[in-house]
Write a structure and sequence with these properties.
- This protein is 77% helix and 0% strand.
- The radius of gyration is 18 Å and the shape is elongated.
- The chain is built from 4 helices and no strands.
- Helix 2 runs antiparallel to helix 3.
- With 106 residues, the protein is mainly α.
């Protein structure tokens, strides 16, 4: 199968795009944007990057030969799986204000 790696990247891109769209619609319906950075990274790292990788390996099939492209796939998936879930907890600027901050504003 000459385009196996390309197909894997493109399928992952579609899955990430669908998850990102569902997540964005949910944020829009509930007006809760505290996870916006994670949603953005899912779209950029998941949909855009994975589709670009997949298209590259589709156009340059000789680049998909060997262990390095397989490592590229697994490191890309691992970085996506690690980065996106931790972003809502590490983003201090998007957290709701504490009661002390609210009292100071009034």
């Amino acid at each position: 199968m000459p385009h196996r790696l390309s197909n894997t990247f493109l399928r992952l891109a579609v899955v990430c795009a669908l998850l990102g769209m569902i997540w964005g619609n949910f944020m829009g319906m509930t007006h809760q944007y505290t996870t916006a950075t994670a949603h953005t990274h899912l779209n950029l790292l998941g949909w855009v990057s994975m589709s670009l990788y997949g298209l590259y390996y589709r156009v340059m099939p000789h680049a998909a030969v060997g262990r390095l492209p397989q490592a590229h796939l697994w490191m890309s998936v691992a970085s996506l799986v690690v980065m996106v879930p931790q972003l809502p907890w590490s983003n201090w600027s998007m957290r709701p204000p504490s009661p002390w901050q609210v009292r100071c504003w009034v």
